[in-house]
Amino acid sequence: MGEIKQLPQNVANQISAGEVVERPASIVKELIENSIDANAENIEIRIEDGGRKLIRVKDDGHGILAEDIEAAFSRYATSKIKEIDDLYSLYSLGFRGEALASISSVAEVEMLSRHKSEDAGVKIKIKGGDILEQKPAGATVGTDVLVRNLFYNTPARYKYLKTTTTEFSHISRIVSTEAAASSDISFKLYHNDRQILSTPGNGKLKDTIYAVFGEEIADNLLPIDIEDRYIKLSGYLTRPELTRSNRSHELFFVNKRPIYNNITAKAVESAYHKLIDPGRKPIVFLFIKVNPILVDVNVHPTKRKVKFSRNQIIYDVISKGIRKTLKEADPTTRIKLEKNREAESEEENNRNDSIESDDKKVADDSLTNKKEAQHENLFENTFNKRKSTQRSKFKKNNRPNINDSRDSREKNQNKKPEINIEESLAAGISDSFNEEYNIEADNVNENRFKFLGQIFNSYLIIETEEGLKIIDQHNAHERILFEKLTADFNKKNTDSQSLLIPVKVELSPEEREIVRQYKDVINEFGIEFSDFGGNTILIQEVPVLLKNKSTRNIIEELIAELSEAGRGLTAAEVEENMIEYLACRTAVKAGKPLNRKESIQLIKDLYETENPYRCPHSRPVMINISRDEIEKGIGRK
Ligand code: ADP
Ligand code: MG
């Protein structure tokens, strides 16, 4: 007998399950899509223990014929592909007839279904691929699937499951997305018997968005409707004032199926560029209809990663379409966009100017900038002018010049939203530059230093025995606050204060769940909140440190931090993340002029920290230029 053997069907199904069933959320997605395909009008999803204990999806679709119920669980069995050609069109995306087979090979599945043409239903129980029971049963028209004991026979996969909160947050994201994709279906989601989500199913996308994502988003929606030769866009965007800290609210659908695609996300983000703060992400619900010639069938079976064959066309239509929509809908946006265009045409003109006149312009700008910075629009104009001036210079001579460093500084700052680019550029040359300093030694423990001044409104310069030190004021302050907050937190001594007017924060069901899970930690940080019904919470108290900041954004970003942290971090790590975040958000920004007294205090405080050399994100706080290096550079040595 040869050595090569056919794998038993069950094992083959388990292997295939690895592809289809990544985690409870993937099962939820497959079951929901089966219900959608069965023309259900109501889909009820009940989850217990993040899906570990139970995943139940019940629909009122057309149901399954009693004679077909067994076949539904065998591999490559599907009622959905009538012609093989369907496989190559987007409409059959993901119909591979293996979901139920895969799921039932790694769990205990019970299905109760009654076809609309039959008087009675049928019940089937399958465990690890084996049929345990099959018999007629009373049922209403539709299908009810219960999945229990997920991964009971694949311990390696079971171990890979994350916390209940994390798994449920994936499920909730899937259900929210599917609900947005099908506004004509009413979705209800329960976790451990608590209702998390309920959509009306009245066919109105706006009402569905209201139900899933809350009033604030629903009230700020701008409809988009663009038709091009190859692609049709519809759905909603939100005004640039309303953003999120990650891509969780960028939803794309191709032919009503949720998809993930980098190009569409990039196109959207490019359209919002300069209208929203760097690091923030827009909110879009974009339904895309494409000419099939632009879609590659090269798709991931479960993740729905669609590949477009002519990316550039898709990118351009989306990005221009969104700009047009934003421009028509919102007067403030229009002003900003036109300023950008002015800047671009100026860039054209500048190509013919001499380098000298460009330099003069930059200098002129920095002199007048301080006053202008007060006025946002005016300033935005200047800022764009400056940028275009620099860009045009780059085009003309490709060699490095003095502006290179500024340009790269801008780039770096774009990555770090905490640094205020506008301020640092607008301030130009610091006043303190010309201030005269008394030479004086400040004794801090054993660290003697002489404060020399602040440069670029961002760095403090001191002389010490080791040499000349350049201290990054933001990183330094972040280190100080980080240690102070850690100490306060350990002493349970976070100062907080009540808000005069409580701030309403609307959360997604997923975010609500995370807040519920981490309520104690959040409270310990001095953030007090109460339920406001649905997924809305009312923030009543915030840490004193945050008193003048935008509570909405801070809470939201904190929640984003926590949802990241939820993926496998310990409680101590979660705390550390929150502290890092608060320190970063509240530390003095680069670009802020500091007076002598403030500077010296900051340096003293820094030297009292445990690690004055690194900020909590491990970026250097200071650099040192030794006397030796200076003397070598100057040629004395
Ligand atoms: P696929 O969806 O790719 O066809 P599945 O394994 O998910 O493969 O389902 C197999 C078959 O079982 C489907 O083609 C369909 O005929 C039937 N089926 C599954 N779920 C339902 C449901 N909720 N309502 C009606 N029929 C269903
Ligand atoms: Mg299916």
Query: How confident overall, as mean pLDDT?
Result: 75
Strand content: 15-25%
**Gap from first CA to last CA:** 83 Å
Uncertain parts:
83-94, 342-446
Structural class: alpha+beta
Helix segment count?
A: 21
Task: Give me the Rg, rounded.
Answer: 30 Å
Shape: elongated
Q: Describe the largest sheet.
A: 8 strands, mixed
List the defining traits of the structure above.
five-stranded mixed β-sheet, single chain, 21 helices, eight-stranded mixed β-sheet, alpha+beta, binds magnesium ion, binds adenosine-5'-diphosphate, elongated, 637 residues
Could you explain how this protein is built, in words?
A hairpin with a 2-residue loop joins strand 7 and strand 8. The protein has 637 residues and is of the alpha+beta class. It contains 21 helices and 23 strands. The chain is elongated and about 95 Å long. About 18% of the residues have low confidence.
Task: List the topology elements.
Blueprint: H1 9-20, H2 24-37, E1 42-48, E2 54-59, H3 99-105, E3 108-114, E4 121-127, E5 130-137, E6 142-148, H4 155-160, H5 164-181, E7 186-191, E8 194-198, H6 205-213, H7 215-219, E9 221-227, E10 231-238, E11 250-254, E12 257-259, H8 262-272, E13 284-290, E14 295-296, E15 307-308, H9 311-329, H10 331-350, H11 355-372, H12 376-396, H13 402-415, H14 421-426, E16 442-444, E17 447-455, E18 459-464, E19 467-472, H15 473-490, E20 496-506, H16 509-517, H17 519-524, E21 528-531, E22 536-543, H18 551-565, H19 571-586, H20 596-607, E23 622-625, H21 627-634
Parallel strand pairs: 1-7, 11-13
Antiparallel strand pairs: 1-2, 2-6, 3-4, 3-6, 4-5, 7-8, 9-10, 10-13, 11-12, 14-15, 16-17, 17-18, 18-19, 19-23, 20-22, 21-22
Bound molecules: adenosine-5'-diphosphate (ADP) and magnesium ion.
